Amino acid sequence: MRVIGLMSGTSYDAVEAAAADLELRGEALVMRPLGHLSAPYPDELRDLIAGSLPPAAATLRDVARLDTGVGQAFAEVAVRAVRELCGGAADLVVSHGQTMYHWVEDGTVRGTLQLGRPAWIAEATGLPVVSDLRSGDVAAGGQGAPLVAMTDALALAALPGVPAALNLGGIANVTVVAPGAEPLAFDTGPANALLDAAVRHFTDGAAQYDEGGRRAGAGRVDPALLRVLLDDPYYARGAPKSTGKERFHLPYLLQALAAAPVAEPDDVLATLARLTAVTVADACRAHGVTRLVVSGGGAHNPVLMGMLAEELPGVDLGSSDALGLPSDAKEALAFALLGFLTVNGLPGAIPSGTGARRAALLGSITPGREPLRLPEPAGQPPRMLHITGGY
């Protein structure tokens, strides 16, 4: 089955698409990646997303505009993916949409909202669309995140020691696969969320992120600010747990700076990069991780990666590319995989990772132009991911 995965992360800068051929062969799920592409959001839509995210308030009109605008943006990228990545023919589109709110109270997820109406994608491509992938796990008592854990667990299954996968998006999340134990997955805390917010603040919006980590690299870590940030009770909470920009945003950072003022913006950025490195490293040490496979936008920040290496001496640190999962495409491929599992009648969430009562079938299906025809339900879930080819 040829599947296209679509997503936009908590940095909300672009729509990412990745395509792959997927097939179940006994205990293995065989994936042949076909390529990926990225398209920035239109400026007006990006501004609307930014102005609607917590702690800002949004009207129902804003929500409707976002649902349509994101859906149309995803539809345009899906059409390109069919043409440019799939040679003009695909079987399924899987859309994560744009997360606007992840509702957490006292460690329990009450709901989660991803916008981007799938009907626009189905109409533009003519293909069935799997969307709303997180709600099923939340309804089953889970965190609804991190859902990339299924792909991580299958990809790491054959590695020795205690491997873990780390995704450095707006929020950092890890999946740990220890021998003889169920996979464990959780959000460790902010990765790019606070860094990007700080850059936009200090440059009055002229820059969106710290390109190449240059400004963080030029700064010095401020111990007092780092102590204030590390005092957040989220870090002491046990897994499973999840978080988002509704917690780690600019007012949160400004409150920390009020408690521990820092004169130089570059020092703030250096401190925020160290915060991510320390919290990720603490999580890895707590679970005896011996190899860390990294993906996401933060993997391109040499300062952050250098700090991770400093915090985790003796841990093999490398890119997910080495496993055949391109770092920039991994999340979109992971959602393609989840949608493939859904249409084959297989659960996509790991209860030990999300805390759900059961392994839920994920998502809702929007038919394309043709009558909906699903495969016969698969007999057993895969136990490993076998990646072939490359692009």
TrEMBL record:
Main function: Catalyzes the specific phosphorylation of 1,6-anhydro-N-acetylmuramic acid (anhMurNAc) with the simultaneous cleavage of the 1,6-anhydro ring, generating MurNAc-6-P. Is required for the utilization of anhMurNAc either imported from the medium or derived from its own cell wall murein, and thus plays a role in cell wall recycling.
Organism: Streptomyces hyderabadensis
Enzyme Commission number(s): 2.7.1.170
Descriptive protein name: Anhydro-N-acetylmuramic acid kinase
The family this protein is said to belong to: Belongs to the anhydro-N-acetylmuramic acid kinase family.
Pathway(s) of this molecule: Amino-sugar metabolism; 1,6-anhydro-N-acetylmuramate degradation; Cell wall biogenesis; peptidoglycan recycling
Pfam families: AnmK (PF03702)
Chain positions recorded as ATP binding sites: 9-16
GO function term, MF aspect, one: kinase activity
Leader sequence residues: none
Catalytic activity: 1,6-anhydro-N-acetyl-beta-muramate + ATP + H2O = N-acetyl-D-muramate 6-phosphate + ADP + H(+)
Source organism superkingdom: Bacteria
Matching InterPro entries: Anhydro_N_Ac-Mur_kinase, ATPase_NBD
Keyword terms: ATP-binding, Carbohydrate metabolism, Kinase, Nucleotide-binding, Transferase
